[in-house]
From TrEMBL:
This is Lipoyl synthase. The gene is lipA. [4Fe-4S] cluster 1 binds at residues 34, 39, 45, 273. Coiled coil: none annotated. It is found in: Cytoplasm.
Length: 291
């Protein structure tokens, strides 16, 4: 087993703002992907009042080989979750909130209506807060992508996660080309939404495959790509094939910009919502400049 390189070592989370965020999340019975996925950036993000809330419960209907979220039979939906989320956003003073979820293949709409209610409730009492969503693929859930796009989240993120060759091993119940279709459908439904997707490296992919994924995402009109190092949550999960160097992440960054992405985040510690607020503001500024 390779030892973790120095550039992936982070400080243990602490601090008053971190504790305030933790207590608020627990008070309103919310889940965060920061905790559930054992994200290495939780200390930095929570101390900046950045949190990624995970709706639809804490149990996923899928078992992807990279993910630390529990798999099993999910609980019933919490009807008060959208209101509680909106109140927590106000209490924490979040200017930009990221909402993600577990996969809910058991629900007729995959949980799409709960995403819509969360966006609407946040905007009722936090009119200046921008909303970024990171959704599942809603595989076989007809018409739900268009419904979410209609309410107009500021950013719609859906991750392809890895290269298509590794899907059977890493995302066995997902379909690469369906994920591309989802991202394209969002743009077709509401062109004003920024679209975003991300993938992990260090799972055994080749450099040429990463470049092909970039081309595929640009063909789907995706604005923003994130690329980060895969870290194995537990011995039960997929092994790390290698630790990608910071220099290689820089190469991916400039390759992505050369292919036409408006925003790129590529570094060992990059995650889907890492520096989401700052990146969204830069994305808006870049669009205004382009106009």
């Amino acid at each position: 087993m390779q030892s973790k390189p120095e550039w992936l070592r982070v400080k243990a989370p602490s601090g008053d703002v971190f504790n305030e965020t933790l207590n608020t999340v627990k008070l309103y019975n919310l889940h965060t992907v920061c905790e559930e996925s054992a994200c290495p950036n939780i200390g930095e993000c929570w101390n900046k009042r950045h949190a990624t809330v995970m709706i639809l419960g804490s149990v996923c209907t899928r078992a992807c080989a990279f993910c630390n979220v529990a798999t099993g039979i999910p609980d019933k939906l919490d009807p008060h979750e959208p209101e509680n989320l909106a109140i927590a956003v106000k209490k924490l003073g979040l200017k930009h909130v990221v909402i993600t979820s577990v996969d809910r293949d058991d629900l007729p709409d995959g949980g799409a209506e709960q995403f819509i209610r969360c966006i609407e409730e946040i905007r009722k009492i936090n009119s200046s807060t921008t909303v970024e969503i990171l959704t599942p693929d809603f595989l076989n859930k007809e018409g739900v992508i268009e419904k979410i796009a209609k309410v107009g989240p500021d950013v719609y993120n859906h991750n392809v996660e890895t290269v298509p060759r590794l899907y059977a091993k890493i995302r066995p119940r997902a379909r690469y080309f369906h994920s591309l279709f989802l991202l394209k459908k969002v743009k077709q439904s509401n062109y004003n939404i920024f679209t975003k997707s991300g993938l992990m490296v260090g799972l055994g992919e080749a450099k040429e495959e990463i470049l092909q994924v970039m081309d595929d995402l640009r063909a789907a009109d995706v604005d923003f790509i994130t690329i980060g190092q895969y870290l194995r949550p537990t011995p039960k999960h997929a092994k790390v094939d290698r630790y990608v160097t910071p220099e290689e992440f820089e190469y991916y960054k400039y390759a992505a910009y050369s292919k036409g992405f408006q925003m790129v985040s590529s570094s060992p510690l990059t995650r889907s919502s890492y520096h989401a607020e700052e990146d969204f503001n830069r994305l808006k500024a870049a669009k205004k400049f382009a106009l």
